[in-house]
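4.2 Preliminary Data

To establish feasibility before requesting continued support, the project team ran the inverse folding procedure on a target of 406 residues. The structure was first converted into the token representation described in Section 3, and no sequence information of any kind was made available to the design step. The complete token record follows.
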């Protein structure tokens, strides 16, 4: 039996049975998918990774000229299949065409089945058939059916894609995970003489966009993009990280909604990074904002002090070697401002020498952080600094320069 054998068998077993209802599918981590049927024909599929992001991506792809002000999320939130209800509503108001609606449905179902093939390749899934009497309720959002797809037709479209994914050795790479640069210095060496390509990579591989969205942005197939990145994944230069869904106030009936409604807690602390490298600023932005802190970056060192005076950050990461004005000078200027004399300043440097450490301490730096940027060390330094600020307020001694680079 192939890796997708159980799923395929269950789908094929429904053919000819006039089954109306749904199949609820779960993995061991609680991830849940749903396949909806009317008379053993597929109507819709949803759940899994990033349902709201997926809906937004497909709208942008197939309905690029649609005015999103016509989409009433609040009205749709009472429906189980809120996205299907919205699609019917747009169709009935002639805001999208039947052809666009069919493309949305077809691709969403194929995407869900592909994800299920991959999930089943990794572990045993649980399946639960739920029969619906006569027809779906009003609350389901499926009262009006746009199309009924034959199971065999959909499987015929999805299986070659999954087979190709397997043949190229991509089964461990999820299209729903986001690539992020792990080792920027080594990766940059790989693109020597191709600085424009590298700059574009840095702007895209920031851990914010899953592979499936990046493929759309680059106008590539998901297989072509993943194959191109595969060597860098294997060399540890780029890694894939799980990301959260977009924030949307949707209440799903009968479905766990931890992936549908994300209210990200943002700390009040503001972290500012001064570095003339766009790449460093973007990597720091990903690390800091994912941890829930506010973030500002400054690439022009001449603008650093005015911006710091204006923003009054709670923590400053400061590059040591920059054109015109270096980190020593900026740090010294910051310490002359009474309201910033206790603000932690962490020096960023790839040259971790004792002379630099002593000189940085003399101008008022609070600590060191070596390059290339490492996520765990950045987060550890942030926590250490904010703990130190609390202690200082309580009457303890301020932060002292550490001898280690972490």
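Position-by-position output of the design step:
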């Amino acid at each position: 039996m192939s890796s997708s054998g159980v799923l395929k068998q269950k789908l094929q077993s429904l053919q000819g049975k006039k089954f109306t209802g749904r199949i609820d599918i779960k993995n061991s981590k609680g991830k849940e998918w749903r396949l909806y049927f009317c008379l053993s024909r597929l109507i819709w599929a949803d759940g899994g990774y990033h349902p709201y992001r997926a809906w937004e991506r497909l709208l942008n792809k197939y309905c690029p000229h649609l005015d999103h002000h016509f989409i009433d999320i609040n009205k749709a939130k009472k429906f189980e299949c809120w996205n299907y209800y919205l699609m019917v509503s747009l169709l009935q108001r002639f805001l999208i065409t039947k052809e666009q609606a069919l493309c949305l449905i077809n691709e969403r179902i194929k995407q869900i089945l592909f994800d299920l093939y991959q999930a089943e390749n990794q572990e045993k899934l649980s399946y639960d058939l739920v029969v619906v009497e006569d027809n779906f309720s009003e609350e389901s959002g499926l009262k009006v059916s746009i199309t009924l797809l034959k199971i065999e037709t959909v499987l015929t479209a999805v299986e070659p894609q999954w087979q190709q994914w397997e043949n190229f050795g991509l089964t461990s790479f999820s299209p729903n995970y986001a690539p992020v640069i792990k080792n920027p210095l080594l990766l940059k060496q790989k693109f020597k003489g191709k600085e424009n390509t590298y700059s574009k990579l840095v702007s895209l591989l920031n851990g914010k966009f899953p592979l499936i969205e990046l493929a759309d942005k680059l106008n590539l197939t998901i297989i072509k993009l993943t194959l191109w990145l595969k060597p860098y994944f294997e060399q540890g230069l780029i890694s894939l990280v799980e990301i959260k869904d977009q924030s949307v106030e949707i209440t799903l009936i009968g479905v766990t909604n931890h992936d549908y409604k994300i209210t990200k807690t943002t700390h009040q602390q503001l972290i500012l990074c001064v570095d003339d490298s766009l790449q460093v600023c973007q990597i720091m932005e990903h690390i800091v904002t994912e941890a829930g802190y506010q973030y500002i970056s400054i690439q022009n060192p001449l603008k650093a002090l005015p911006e710091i005076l204006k923003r009054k950050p709670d923590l400053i990461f400061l590059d040591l070697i920059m054109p015109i004005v270096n980190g020593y000078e900026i740090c010294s200027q910051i310490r002359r401002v009474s309201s910033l004399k206790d603000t932690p300043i962490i020096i960023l440097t790839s040259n971790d020498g004792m002379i630099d450490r002593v000189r940085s301490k003399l101008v008022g730096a609070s600590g060191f952080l070596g390059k290339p940027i490492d996520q765990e060390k950045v987060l550890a330094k942030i926590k250490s600094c904010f703990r130190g600020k609390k202690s200082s307020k309580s009457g303890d001694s301020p932060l002292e320069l550490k001898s280690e680079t972490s």
